[in-house]
Amino acid sequence: xxxxxxxxxxxxxxxxxxxxxxxxxxxxxxxxxxxxxxxxxxxxxxxxxxxxxxxxxxxxxxxxxxxxxxxxxxxxxxxxxxxxxxxxxxxxxxxxxxxxxxxxxxxxxxxxxxxxxxxxxxxxxxxxxxxxxxxxxxxxxxxxxxxxxxxxxxxxxxxxxxxxxxxxxxxxxxxxxxxxxxxxxxxxxxxxxxxxxxxxxxxxxxxxxxxxxxxxxxxxxxxxxxxxxxx
Length: 231
Ligand code: DC
What we know:
Layout: E1 7-12, H1 18-29, E2 32-35, H2 36-49, H3 57-65, E3 69-73, E4 79-83, E5 86-87, H4 95-104, H5 108-121, E6 127-131, H6 134-138, E7 144-149, H7 152-165, H8 172-188, E8 201-204, H9 210-230
Parallel strand pairs: 1-6, 1-7, 2-6, 7-8
Antiparallel strand pairs: 3-4, 4-5
Helix pairs in contact: 1-9, 2-4, 2-5, 4-8, 7-8
Bound molecules: 2'-deoxycytidine-5'-monophosphate (DC).
C-alpha cells in the first residue's frame, strides 16, 4: 500500500513538547524536521549581534537581506541551525535570545521572510514543521495539523530541565515569567498570532509521556497518508 507524503504542522505554546514530538515523528516517518522557532531565533541572534534597531524598518530590511538560514543533520543525526554558514544551534537557545525572540517575531518583514523560506522547505511535502503559525499561515492546506498545550507548571519544569541538561540552573520563577511573557506576545501580536487552526487536533501533553504523544501523532499521520493517497 502506497503512503503519500504529507505535511504535518505542529503549533502550540512554548515548552509544550512540540519540537520533541516533531523530531521523533519525523524520524519514524523518515520526514524532514524543521524547527521554525529556530529560524526566528537565528534572526534574533543576528539582530542582537549587529545591534539592529527593531523599530527601524530600513535597518530590519537591510539585515534580513544579509541573513541566510539553513539546516543540516550532524553526525549524531541531530538537525542543527546554521546562520550564514555557521552553526548557531547552542547560541540561539541562550536566555538573551529567548528574551528577545518574541518581539522580533512580531515584525511583519521578519515573518514574511521566514514564511517564504518555510514554504520552500515544505514544497515537496514529507515534512514535519513546528511553530506558532504553521497550520494557520505557512501551510493552511497541511494534511495534519496539531495544536499542543500543557499546564504552565509542567511546561516550566520541562524548560528548566532542558537548561539543566546544559549545566545551567535557571530559577523556576524566571522560567515561568519568560514563558508567560512569550505566550502573551505570541497570542496577541497583530501579525499571525498563535491560534488553533479550525481543523487542528488538540493534544494536551500535561499528563502524557513523549512516547504517547508520538504514538498519537503517528496514528493520525498514517490515516492522513492513506486518505491523501486516495485523492
Ligand atoms: O518554538 P520556540 O520557542 O523556539 O520559538 C521561539 C519564538 O519564535 C516564539 O516565542 C515565537 C516565535 N515563533 C513564531 O512567531 N512563529 C513560529 N512559526 C515559530 C516561532
